[in-house]
Request: fold
Amino acid sequence: MSETTTPDLIVTGGPIYTAAIGQPWVEAVAVTDGKISAIGSEAEIRALAGPATEIVDAAGRLVMPGLSDGHIHLGLGGGQAAWELPLLPSDSKEEIFAKIVDWAADFGPDEWIVGGIVGSTVMDDVMNVDDLAALDAASGGRPVLLRDDSMHNRWVNSRALELMGVGADTPDPEGGSYVRDASGALTGVLQELASGEAETAFVAHTVDPDARNKVSLKKAMEVINSYGITAVQDAATMEYSWKALSALEEDGVISAWIVGSMPTRPFIEAGPVGEELYAIGRAHGSKHVRPDFLKFVLDGVPMTRTTAMLHPYICHEHEDPDFVGESYWTLEELVAGVEYCYDNNLGGKLHATGDASVRLVLDAVEKVRAERGPGPIFQIAHVEFVDPVDVPRFAELGVVPDASPYLWYPGVIQESIAKQIPQATVDRSWVTKDFVDTGALLSAGSDWPCVLPTPDPWLAIETLVTRANIDPSVPGELNPSQKLTVEQAVVAFTRNPAQAMGLSDVTGTIEVGLSADFIVLDRNIFEVAPREIHETKVDLTYFEGKKVHERAAALAS
Reply:
């Protein structure tokens, strides 16, 4: 226990998991001025209470640190939750058309229909003019913008293409493509940076986008708090997010620690990048919203064969049997980017889904570390495919494996990936245990709204342990040798991502001096059967010692 003044709040009455090294369990916690002021036995902490001290009685329920999501897209996720047509990756194209008809029944003729998530298997199937015509019909001529489960690709209709200024003879943009059929006709499917043009057109035709974005970001915080998340790294923080978050900070309603990642080059969202965006981030940074990372995108996603691999993709008809994809960066360019991070005291989040891109990042960091010594934090997202010889290099170089999104179990997206990536490579994907065993700082994140409609961390924690889909109708386990223990999975959502974001002196554990960010659960995830963890509900979420979420069902119990 540590000495303290009379606390504002005491938490007791249940097992308290701290996620701290050396003292993982305590009986009670005291909170003063929004920070943890003492931990210890129930008797010790209760003795500190004064007449005005609030007592939070967990009533036997598990208390643990607020979760940290190391990879999320708050603006996109909040916008989806607040405004947009909700689609499931399992929806067929026919179901999508029907949902569009219902959703837009009362829309004006020029009102955009925006939504997601469209499954990768559907995106593969709609690259034709007949489905473009069906999308046009379902929308009644209104512009449509649908995002896929990777968030790298879009499906738009003819009206949206018109507003984008894209026609039959428009050349593909650098780093992207307007997918055409065999005759050369546009299909409405956009890949990689072509998607950004659709987002730009949507923003250009949005009424009062600043007000909309503010509502979206506020909604995003409500969503993450409901799942017990109190710290996030926003994986691509664009100008609209900086402005909205700054306004919310002024309103005093920020309810999570937010670390921004600013894209270095043109991105799949609208807005400035590079030096212009860095300046915007610095101008709008605050206590809770920190402009501390740059975002580098080295490749795309395996479903569209835009990932850079060490070994060839599966060869389909009329394709190059030696095709491995390519990185968007050369080693020399990436070394310069890493050096820029050193020079400006910025961390780097580097999107690298393919094992060739992962190796490129490690090579660049290794070169600069050898010359300049330890420096900023570098994270590689998403580390789905990593060559075995490169796994120990993460710990050796102090590079964080950012495991996101939740794709380490069998499902629809894995089926789509397996159509492009050889099975031998798929079978060794998501080497989470190897990272832990070799001493790397494994950090997990949802990548919300990619893949799933929510950032539900309890599904992720369960599947890190089981490597199986929570749906019993989906058989099998993905690379089961990589199963984690429950505690290892929890640490990947608490202590580790906080450290990876540069917030270990702020949050991530329940320790004296840190922010009083904690949650109360409806079950003890360390004791229930692993296949039940995804059913976990968060009864209470506290951020800086203030309640920011309370589950209605918990109030009634």
Summary: The longest helix spans residues 209-226.
